[in-house]
Amino acid sequence: MNKYLLALFFLIAVLAVPFHADAGNYKEVINTESWNIPQLDNLLVRASGIRDTSERIDFLSSQFSGIPYKSATLIGDQQTQEALVINLSGVDCFTFLDYVEALRRSGSFAEFKENLRKVRYQNGVVDYKHRNHFFSDWTLFNEGFIEDVTGEIGAGKAKKVIKLLNAGENGIPLLPGIAVKRRELIYIPSAGIDALILNRLKTGDYIGIYSDRKDLDVSHVGIIIRKGARIFFRHASLQEKYRMVVDEDLKDHLAHKPGVVILRPKVSAATASQ
Q1: Structural domain harbouring 146
Q2: Do 169 and 104 share a domain, yes or no?
Q3: Are 154 and 259 contacting, i.e. CB atoms less than 8 angstroms apart?
Q4: Same domain, 120 and 172
Q5: What are the C-alpha distances in Å from 1 to residues 10, 30, 82, 122, 262?
């Protein structure tokens, strides 16, 4: 988030969290800087007043502008107990989307924590095996809030492929302890992305950069942002010249990339009523 909202997440250290019947016992790790909880509550009340989903996501995601890229901020693996982490001092491409999607569903910090649990984890269970490790997990476990519109946007240019996610090479999984998942994916090859397809993209669409690996669905993710006639890719960039959340020209970013997968946030009853 910007230098003020960036401050949100270093004040509170590791906290024990009450029991949740549907999620089990888990810990929270919340990092804030100069923001306090009432200030974040005020920001989310303001965001809740933005009825248009695209505008709300644009507003919330813009708060992250300039936040440093930081990998491995989550806690949990095959040997380490999972914790619910909120750490906006630095984000990678996927935690950036986690936070934005949870924020857009929330009207308060308390709601944000609960929504993050539901966005990041299958059925809200805070556990490494239940974490949504793949972009395509989102449509399966957030189907009331997110839909895959790749085929619709790509029309006759979209392609289908079957992948074994996490299968790895030589029998070594990408993520130890996570089951192999057979998935049918739809993607639009970059060579087929023309003006008609670009015109169908909306601000707030979540876009994944399709991977040509057999064991991975996408290699990077971000958010579509339209500014007049231009279309930008808002993302936590690992590139040395950025290494932070930036807006990059979409066509420039897609040059030499295999293709895209596009997920669209739904207008849910929860967000519509806020």
Answers
A1: 137-265
A2: no
A3: no
A4: no
A5: 13, 15, 24, 26, 24
